[in-house]
Design goal:
24% strand; 344 residues; 9-stranded mixed sheet; alpha/beta; Dihydrodipicolinate Reductase, domain 2; Gfo/Idh/MocA-like_OxRdtase_N; Rossmann fold; Gfo/Idh/MocA_Oxidoreductase; GFO_IDH_MocA-like_dom
């Protein structure tokens, strides 16, 4: 089965994640690239042996293209993903699904109307350590989950983005929307939903632009740090911190505290999952190292997306899942801006 893929937006996420993973997938025969900056599309077409579409409409009008990766910037996700679904394409949308509930609903509705697949790239669900942790929690090997803490931070998108400067769109309120929360935080909030099979229902938060400046040397318009407290439907309590100012080493770790022990995920570079039981036993799992900005490995996202199209199965991250994570993000932003506890 030969699947032809289209990529909208040729920034770093397309270059380092989507394009190489499509090329490595045995079922994908060709990639067509579109970017409003034609040179960027041409660069990736050369790099990955694909071709270039001169417009989004031309890309979506190609009857041979079955799947689309929407790698545009946040404010455009709802436009391109909705249009692609309505054109009869299966869509893998970068996170967040959109910047507003209304726009997210447009994408979800387009999926329902079209009957095509929609998956959103909350890629933390795909790591073996997180999947093993979920299995341990589901099987109640350590009893019920009581509390948790999670963090995701690195030195910032200007070190990762396509132009490697402080003019990155991630620092612009109208394009990024939520700063570090929409970039890194949403991954961890989705992960908590996934691991605990539960939903965050109340949040309080602090946010600030502590250190980052834009291309003019002014403090950025969005937050570079957020710390929040979370409560789930089932009454579990947790904390989360997200940062673009972890200078020196990325932190992508989560700890789950249960009745009979503790799960530590991505705390130890040798053992990606460590279990400490109440009676003093320690079990170490050597699975695979997590992907970082400095160390690009296959995320498994594209493979999972192609499999759900090929085998007609449900995506691991649905539009509905992405909508729930977006609601939490909006709650975190509101809590930080109003100094109130917000119910999602």
């Amino acid at each position: 089965m030969d699947i032809k893929a289209g990529i909208i937006g040729c920034g770093s996420i397309a270059k380092f994640r989507h394009a190489p993973e499509y090329r490595a997938n045995p079922y994908v025969s060709e990639i067509v690239f579109y970017d409003r900056n034609l040179e960027r599309a041409e660069e990736l077409a050369t790099l990955f042996g694909g071709s270039v579409a001169k417009s989004v409409d031309k890309l979506l009008a190609d009857p041979e293209i079955e799947v689309i990766s929407d790698c545009s910037s946040n404010e455009n996700h709802h436009l391109f993903s909705t249009k692609a679904l309505k054109s009869g394409k299966h869509v893998l949308c970068e996170k967040p699904i959109s910047l507003t509930i209304e726009h997210a609903n447009q994408v979800v509705d387009a999926q329902k109307e079209s009957g095509r697949k929609l998956m959103v790239d909350h890629n933390q669900r795909f790591t073996r350590a997180h999947q093993k942790a979920k299995e341990i929690i589901e099987n109640k090997e350590l009893g019920n989950v009581l509390t948790f803490q999670t963090t995701f931070g690195h030195q910032g998108p200007e070190y990762w983005g396509v132009n490697k400067t402080n003019s990155t769109w991630f620092f612009k309120k109208d394009r990024s929307g939520f700063g570090v929360v929409g970039d890194l935080g949403i991954h961890k909030l989705d992960l908590i939903h996934y691991l605990l099979d539960d939903q965050i229902e109340q949040v309080s938060a602090f946010q600030a632009a502590l250190d980052k400046v834009d291309e003019n040397g002014e403090p950025i318009e969005v937050c570079d740090n957020v710390v929040c407290s979370l409560k789930t439907n089932q009454g579990r309590l947790g904390t989360a911190s997200f940062s673009w100012t972890y200078y020196g080493q990325e932190d992508n770790s989560t700890i789950i505290y249960c009745e009979k022990g503790i799960l530590k995920i991505y705390h130890n570079s040798t053992y990606q999952l460590e279990v400490f039981t109440k009676d003093g036993e320690q079990i170490n799992y050597k699975l695979e190292s997590i992907q970082t900005n400095d160390s690009q490995t296959n995320t498994g996202v594209i493979d999972a997306f192609i499999d759900c199209v090929r085998l007609d199965t449900e995506p691991i991250v649905s539009g509905q899942d992405a909508l729930l994570s977006l609601k939490v993000i909006l709650g975190v932003m509101e809590a930080a801006e109003t100094n109130k506890v917000v119910t999602i």
